[in-house]
């Protein structure tokens, strides 16, 4: 088997042209260039990135008529890559991220070449000062962000996905639009015996932000959490997972408006169709627990 062929996908809302330029320049500096670069305009027109920056590999712009959210935009990139049929691994990068090191894609290639059951590789996210927020570490509690290893989830801002894994377990849950789509994909991958690796040596520089900056955050965070539990957990664990999440929300959130939006989303998640129910096996529950994050937290 030869070296995996890598593509880079970037989904943008069109409101960060300078950041996208900087990101693409960091991709152009990689010592192993991607075979293809797909840039998705999520409900926005795209400028001529490739012509202006002389990017490596074949650059494919995809302009969507409407904003399909993070997972919907990434699915559009995957659909275009499948049309070409020559990519083994896709690296998704936030449009305001930056690859600091020039060997990121080479390291990604080598990780996948060494493990045929490696499905997902998560990057370390750090701000301009090198600080990684605890919520960006895919482990419970306060954990060293520089300690890698096999985990139960990954971050959407910077990661790599094996195309064969996606062909088996399915693409992003587009109906989520934003929030918890990574967990839905990670749980499906784990249930199909694909490994998820957190590789902190793969660094994506990203401005320090809060997810609550998005106006829809509280509502979709709650709605998607309910959908996630309904879709992916054994029925006995659904009330346990949601009960723990409600308790944590009440302990952490001091905003009355935020709580009202959150509980409105929770009710929406209960009432609205959650999509296909494909619960993980109890064997997967045990595996995730052994990896440090039982799927009730």
Topology:
Layout: E1 6-12, H1 17-28, E2 36-41, H2 49-53, E3 58-63, H3 69-84, E4 89-94, E5 98-99, H4 104-114, E6 118-126, E7 149-150, E8 158-162, H5 163-169, H6 181-191, E9 195-205, H7 217-232, H8 238-252, H9 256-271, H10 282-290
Provide an overview of this structure.
There is one protein chain. By secondary structure, the protein is α/β, with parallel strands linked by helices. Helix 6 packs parallel to helix 7 (217-232), helix 7 packs antiparallel against helix 8 (238-252) and helix 7 (217-232) runs parallel beside helix 9 (256-271). It is 40% helix and 18% strand. The model has no long low-confidence stretch (mean pLDDT 93). It contains 10 helices and 9 strands. Strands 1, 2, 3, 4, 5, 6, 7, 8 and 9 form a 9-stranded mixed sheet that branches.
Summarize this structure as a short list of keywords or feature phrases.
single chain; 297 residues; alpha/beta; 9-stranded mixed sheet; 10 helices; 9 strands; globular
Q: Which structural class is indicated by helix and strand composition? A: alpha/beta
**Helix count, per DSSP?**
10
Distance between the termini: 39 Å
Let me know the average pLDDT: 93
| Global morphology | globular
Radius of gyration: 19 Å
Order of helices and strands: EHEHEHEEHEEEHHEHHHH
Provide the low-confidence segments as ranges: none
* Sheet of most strands: 9 strands, mixed
What portion of the residues fall into strands of 2 or more residues?
A: 15-25%
| Total beta strands | 9
Helix fraction, binned, reads: 25-40%
């Amino acid at each position: 088997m030869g070296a995996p062929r890598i593509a880079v996908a970037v989904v943008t809302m069109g409101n960060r042209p300078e950041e996208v330029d900087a990101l693409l320049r960091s991709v152009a500096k990689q010592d192993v260039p991607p075979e293809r670069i797909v840039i998705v305009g999520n409900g926005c027109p795209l400028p001529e990135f490739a012509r202006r920056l002389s990017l490596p590999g074949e650059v494919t712009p995809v302009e969507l008529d409407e904003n399909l959210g993070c997972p919907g935009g990434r699915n559009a990139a995957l659909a275009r890559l499948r049309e070409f049929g020559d990519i083994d691994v896709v690296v998704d990068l936030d449009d305001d991220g930056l690859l600091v090191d020039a060997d990121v894609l080479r390291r990604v290639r080598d990780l996948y070449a060494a493990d045929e059951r490696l499905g997902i590789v998560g990057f370390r996210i750090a701000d301009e000062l090198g600080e990684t927020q605890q919520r960006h570490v895919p482990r419970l509690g306060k954990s060293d962000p520089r300690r890698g290893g096999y985990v139960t989830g990954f971050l959407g801002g910077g990661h790599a996905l094996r195309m064969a894994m996606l062909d088996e377990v399915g693409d992003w849950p587009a109906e989520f639009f934003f929030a918890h789509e990574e967990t839905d994909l990670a749980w499906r991958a784990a249930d199909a015996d694909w490994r998820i690796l957190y590789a902190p040596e793969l660094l994506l520089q990203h401005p320090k932000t809060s997810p609550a900056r998005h106006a829809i955050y509280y509502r979709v965070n709650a709605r998607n959490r309910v959908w996630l539990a309904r879709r992916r957990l054994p029925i006995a664990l659904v009330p346990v997972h949601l009960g723990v999440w409600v308790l944590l929300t009440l302990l952490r959130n001091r905003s009355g408006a935020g709580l009202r939006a959150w509980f409105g989303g929770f009710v929406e998640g209960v009432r609205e169709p959650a999509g296909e129910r494909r619960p993980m096996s109890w064997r997967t529950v045990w595996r995730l627990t052994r990896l440090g994050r039982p799927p009730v937290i």
